[in-house]
Amino acid sequence: MHQIQSLPRVSHLLISLSLLLFSLFTLTVSKQCNLYDKNILLELKTQLGNPSTLVQHWNPNTDCCTDWQGSFIRGDGEGHVTMLVLGVDDDVSGPIPSIIGQLYFLQALELWNKNISGSIPHAICNLTRLEFLAIQSTSMSRPIPNCLGRLTNLVQLEIILNHLIMGPIPDSLGNLTKVVSFQLYRNNLLWDSTRTYPWFILPIIDSPVQSRRVSACSNRKTPAARLAWEPVHWADSQIGRTGQYKLYGFIEQQVQWGTLVIGWPKQDVGISKFEQEYVQVELPMGLRRLDINHNMIHGSLPKQWGQLPLYNIDVCGPIPTGRRLKRFDPPLFSHNKCLCGLPLPPCNLSESTMEHNHFNMTPHHLRISLSVLLFSLIFTLTISKQCNPYDENTLLELKTHLGNPATLVQYWTPTTDCCRNWASGINCDYLGHVTSLTLGLVDDVSGPIPPIIGELLFHRDLEFWKTNISGPIPYALCNLTRLEQLSIRETSMSGPIPHCLGRLTNLTELDIALNDRITGPIPDTLAHLTNLHVLQPPANKLSGQIPYSLHQMRSLQWFNVESNQISGSIPASLPLIPNLTVIIMDNNKLSGLIPDTFGSFQNPITLDLHGNRLSGPLPNAYLMDFSSNGLVRDPSFLFGRNKTFALTINLSNNRFEFDLSKVEFPAGLRDLNISHNMIYGSLPKQLGQLPLRSIDVSYNQLCGPIPTGRRLKRFSPMYFSNNKCLCGLPLPPCNLCLLFLSTFFTPSLSAELCNPDDKRTLLAIKQSFGNPYLLASWTNDADCCTDWYQVECDSTTHRITSLTIFSGQLSGEIPAAVGDLPYLQTLVLRKLSNLTGQIPDAIAKLKNLKMVRLSWTNLSGPVPSFFSQLKNLDYLDLSFNQLSGSIPPSLSELPNLQTLHLDRNQLTGSIPESFGSFMRSDFYIYLSHNRLSGPIPSTLGRVGFTLIDFSRNQLTGDASFLFGKNKGLQQLDLSRNLLEFNMTNLEFDSSLISIDVNHNKIYGSIPASLAGLPQLQFLNVSYNRLCGPIPTGGQLNRFDQYSYFHNRCLCGTPLPPCNTFSISFVYVIAAAMAIPSRASLLTFSLLLLTSLTLSHSAVVCNPNDKKVLLQIRNHFNSVGFFGSWDPKTDCCNWNDIVCNDADHPGRVTTFSVGYSNDVVGQIPPIIGDLPYLTYLELTYLPNLTGSIPQTITKLTRLQVLDLTSNHLSGPIPEFLSQMKSLQQVHLSSNSFSGPIPASLSLLPHLIQLDLSKNKLTGSIPESFGSFKAGLDLQVFENLLSGSIPRSLGQANLTNLDVTANRFTGDASFLFARDKALVTIALRLNKFKFDFTNVDLPQFLAVLDIAHNHIYGSLPKRLGQLPLSYIDVSYNHLCGPIPTGRRLKRLVPDRFAHNKCLCGLPLPPCKK
């Protein structure tokens, strides 16, 4: 730690270094020194006595603007000298000649050398363009010239560390109304108490200048002088040094947001300590920050201080009472003589006589490099970004405090530029100040965040995300007053949210989410964040009440506090926030009434309050989730045909009771859940006409036929079950006689109906769970059939038939007593995260069970085999648990089973062969997100599945038997496995809605019959080995490139077009891959004969190529994976190898290896000895490491280089530009780092370049504007930053995806009507431009600009484009959404979180 004597030298060295950086990196045009200024400088040199440094460098024959050294000189565009620094690196001495006043264009002047003497020349006052004047560490003497008041353009004035400058501070300095930084410390200035004193700093804060003069005298009870406001430093001058004059006083007018700094905040307190009696001192009522530490101030704190809106205070007697003072940390009051009272220990009168103790405190006030900020005001030239040295040192010290994590050690090196080369999402402004930092997303940062992070004063965006960062949220963050976005997400941080975050008034987004150790209340000081748009601290452990004062946040749009422990009532003031559109407060402990004011929101709102203890009326919203509360009575007013913005309504698990028969539903309603209430009547006929995606009306008292409609028939019967007498598809047909009896002859409910055995069992279950509030209605004096929630009784026997506990605070294991409900048909325990243990054997006793749903819990252990004994079971859901082991084959013995959910567990082994014997013809099976392996049993091809989801496992082999005509299959998801089969001749059921087979090894071509599927809504065959033209027509025309990309050689719309040679080439490869490894060479030869361009009857592997391949096999030492590579067989028949060069038979043209953990090591250099290779694929090999070998440049015929999803690292090599035949380069999902080589633009045939999901830094090269062949450019999820070069607007791009980088600035030039762009994805960057007049490409299908700072309105043409996907959310867009059929049917989320977008699918615009 520096001592106080060295601090000013360090501070001003930083300033000089900033000047040097500015001069070195300002981009200016070539200029020539103005002759007049040059002569003045030469005369100045002469009058200074020709110092040797200036004699050496100030040469009359060279250009003073570009060639003179020894002092800093900078010229403007016309060669006028605008900057001059004398004394830093030269031997200037003596007085400064008055001729300096003839450099009339000078804007910055610094004199810094102890050998500079004499007085401050009055000639400086002629330099009226001066904006920066610094006179420091000189031997100048005499007073400050009064004429400095003429320099009205000054922004920064520093006259410091000049021990011979004396006299009073001139009155005229009050004219300097533009000054931002005013420093006069460590001179020999005198305080004149006999005269009226002008307080020049006040006009800076509160203009125009009022009468601000106060008489100064020595009487303590008379105001002595005005207090100095930051950024002025009075420390270490003559003020108060002798003790003759006491510095205290008051401010006549209120000054808002002032800061008082008295005393230099360093450890050495022996220099110029102030003495002050503070009993009499009055402070301005607007004061927010007070720092008077390390002085000799005595007396007690004035009572007035308790009423000030102070955010920070560092100052014998009790601390004044006041809500604001109590919330400050005790260290801010520490090391005083006898301060006491909150937040310190309570007062003890005997302590007032204790001796004063002196301590050294850690500095918290180092003022750094203000000149960099100043120059952004002085110079408007664009400069080349280079890391500010202070910020760089701060980051390096931060790295040290964090324990030097490996990732930061690798990238954060002093020899590289932190703005360009360092990882962790570092961005800088054009002066090199660090403005954004992301810790944890792609690095290994852990431990607490040190306070030094508070010294990155120019920060605007700070993220701690997905990391082991621990400790409290540092109070030092509150120093970052420029912050606009603060995100603390998925960390191990703990403790409360600091109150001082309320100081960060520039914040627009505060995201403190998914940190399960963040506790305490939501600070009421957050109400000061009047610019905040997003406040979301969900999924923490916050408690207390929601502050009523949040209504002061007039800009708030999104408020999310879900999944905390917040209690109390909902503030009635929330509707006063004019722009609030989203309120999410589910899964807390809120209670009481929903405020009446909630009916007065100015906009339709998304409101989610489920999982609380609320009651009362409900407001209008377009997503309403009030599920799992205790709400009662009639909410039918929520419905209505004219309420077009109610898209989702969830009233489940309440106590609502009303007649549904005459209810009219909103025409746009998509999701309806009214289950588990006491709703009666019949289902309205209109229900069959709505575009519903989901419906659940189960567990009510509804009766009558289910309305006819194609959509309703598709839903599972369980969503209509457990009602009084609902009937009709998908339930059994209606019986009119039974309907009549059920409607008019209901049993009397005067006597208790509940069976005493069942009641006793239920009370035992409640006790086993610890009598949770969720089961509060389960009381001994209430009828369990009529008054209890979560249970249902049979209308005849009155035995318990349903136990449904959903979404609440319930913990423990499932009690064995649940098996003592012998008539139970439905058992649901869902979304109970604290439900643990294994599934109890007692459930096997429940022979009447039809539905078991134990999902979204923390149950563990195996899937019990006893379920096979429950022969009535038709629905089994054990999803989203921690179940392990294998799947019991005995589940296939359930004759009525229709739906099986075992997804999202940790199951291993294979899918049982016996699953081919399921009896139902409309079976739904979900096994996704497990660890299942091995082949899919072919017996499953016999089952009439409606839905199959085997995604995200490790399944291998064939799955083609799952396809076929007349099977009834509607949805199939086999994605992210290791399946390998030929797709060419597959047949499909006409009812297919969704096919997802991405990330497998599927080969062949896409069948043309896919185009004839009338209901196909989703298709994804990406990341396979498919080849050939993509079929056109029908529903296939709606899918974008993401449905097809990353295949071997698919072509045609929406991918690049096919050509004759490639089609012929493709079919030969596809056919060859379809041949089993044991097929004869003759069969392969016949296929070659049918090729359009190849006509050889037999191919024999070239011995040189065979030798190379065997060396590659030995290099990887994986006998299992390369089992077919037998030296005794023809290498052209080996797996993963193709030989199809017509002019050079037997030469290897395709090398395709992938999807294996057994391929370990680096890419062997010998691979460059396959000279006829046109296709090289090494993909999904997680143990393939190292860099790309340079020998690959010998593959001069290579057209496709695919190294996707490995663990390759190092820079992307420049030598790739030598491979002129390359058409496709796929390097995504590796660990490549460094910049993108500009030389890649030299590849004349390149049409696909995928560099996504790496750690690339820098920006997109300027040279990429030269691509003219139609480039598909993917660079998403890297660490790229800066602005996109404007030259890219001249490139011929078909697709551009720069998602999830740190790009800034303008990107509007990428758009134009005549461009061939099909996809533009700018998501998750910091682009800022006006979207109003952007001319969108005519064939644009995908537009994703979400999460940027884009403003203006949406272009009208947007509604006319053939868009298949659009997302413009989280920007600053405004105005009406253009009309267009496609836009109206999109979900509102795609347009949400903008400034003032309106119109369908959002709420209508206000007139």
UniProtKB/TrEMBL annotation:
<feature type="domain" description="Leucine-rich repeat-containing N-terminal plant-type">
    <location>
        <begin position="756"/>
        <end position="794"/>
    </location>
</feature>
<comment type="similarity">
    <text>Belongs to the polygalacturonase-inhibiting protein family.</text>
</comment>
<keyword id="KW-0812">Transmembrane</keyword>
<feature type="domain" description="Leucine-rich repeat-containing N-terminal plant-type">
    <location>
        <begin position="1103"/>
        <end position="1140"/>
    </location>
</feature>
<dbReference type="InterPro" id="IPR013210">
    <property type="entry name" value="LRR_N_plant-typ"/>
</dbReference>
<keyword id="KW-0677">Repeat</keyword>
<dbReference type="InterPro" id="IPR001611">
    <property type="entry name" value="Leu-rich_rpt"/>
</dbReference>
<dbReference type="InterPro" id="IPR032675">
    <property type="entry name" value="LRR_dom_sf"/>
</dbReference>
<feature type="signal peptide">
    <location>
        <begin position="1"/>
        <end position="30"/>
    </location>
</feature>
<feature type="domain" description="Leucine-rich repeat-containing N-terminal plant-type">
    <location>
        <begin position="389"/>
        <end position="429"/>
    </location>
</feature>
<keyword id="KW-0472">Membrane</keyword>
<dbReference type="InterPro" id="IPR003591">
    <property type="entry name" value="Leu-rich_rpt_typical-subtyp"/>
</dbReference>
<protein>
    <recommendedName>
        <fullName>Leucine-rich repeat-containing N-terminal plant-type domain-containing protein</fullName>
    </recommendedName>
</protein>
<dbReference type="Pfam" id="PF08263">
    <property type="entry name" value="LRRNT_2"/>
</dbReference>
<keyword id="KW-0433">Leucine-rich repeat</keyword>
<dbReference type="Pfam" id="PF13855">
    <property type="entry name" value="LRR_8"/>
</dbReference>
<dbReference type="Pfam" id="PF00560">
    <property type="entry name" value="LRR_1"/>
</dbReference>
<feature type="domain" description="Leucine-rich repeat-containing N-terminal plant-type">
    <location>
        <begin position="36"/>
        <end position="70"/>
    </location>
</feature>
<keyword id="KW-0732">Signal</keyword>
<dbReference type="InterPro" id="IPR051848">
    <property type="entry name" value="PGIP"/>
</dbReference>
<dbReference type="GO" id="GO:0016020">
    <property type="term" value="C:membrane"/>
</dbReference>
<keyword id="KW-1133">Transmembrane helix</keyword>
